Amino acid sequence: MGSFPAFRAAAACPPCWPTPSAEPRRPGAGSLGTSSPRPWSPSPSAGPAILSGLHYLVARHLETGEDPPEYARPIWKGYLAWLEEVPPAQRHQRLHGSHYSFLDPVEARFITSALVEAVCLAGSPEEIVERVRALTQEGLKQIMLYPPLNRQYRVIEDFADSVMARL
């Protein structure tokens, strides 16, 4: 099986933050930009955007048989098992039911810092500027914003003022 190609676009999600945990911290674990499998607690508006990235990976896997990227492997088998809990005729609805609209509390358990890092630009404006610069060096061509509709103009203005103005 092949692997997923590197992305050429990035999505800026609303804020998210690590969940406090009694789990011992591994080197580099727990903050934005790590590959810790520890779950994250996203804002209600960020969670659907984060999980939509996972929905894409799973849909592609189901269509092509491709293996998941490294960042999704720690949650992959569990997510597919969750998906297979419903009859085959209902799996598409389960996979895309919360797509960019709400955070399913059961599905939220699959959000990890590695998934957040791979599918979103999240963190402080300084962290996002640093990440965009690094991604540009890797071939980033565009940034897509998926703000919640009730705050879309404020989010776009804040992103322009706090991030884009620094690039």
Overall, the morphology is globular
Q: What is the rounded Rg?
A: 16 Å
Count of discrete alpha- or pi-helical segments spanning 4 or more residues = 6
Could you say which structural class the secondary elements and strand pairing correspond to?
mainly alpha
* Spatial strand order of the main sheet: 1-4
Give the helix level as a range of percent. 40-55%
| Average of the residue pLDDT scores | 76
Largest sheet: 2 strands, parallel
Task: Give a quick precis of the structure.
The chain is mainly alpha-helical and 167 residues long.
Describe the structure.
With 167 residues, the chain is mainly alpha-helical. It has six helices and four strands; from the N terminus they run βββαααααβα. It has one domain. The radius of gyration is 16 Å and the shape is globular. The model is unreliable at 1-9 and 14-40 (pLDDT under 50).
Short descriptors:
167 residues, mainly alpha, disordered N terminus, two-stranded parallel sheet, 4 strands
Write the SSE topology.
Elements: E1 9-12, E2 16-18, E3 40-42, H1 46-64, H2 73-83, H3 91-96, H4 113-119, H5 125-137, E4 142-145, H6 152-162
Parallel strand pairs: 1-4
Antiparallel strand pairs: 2-3
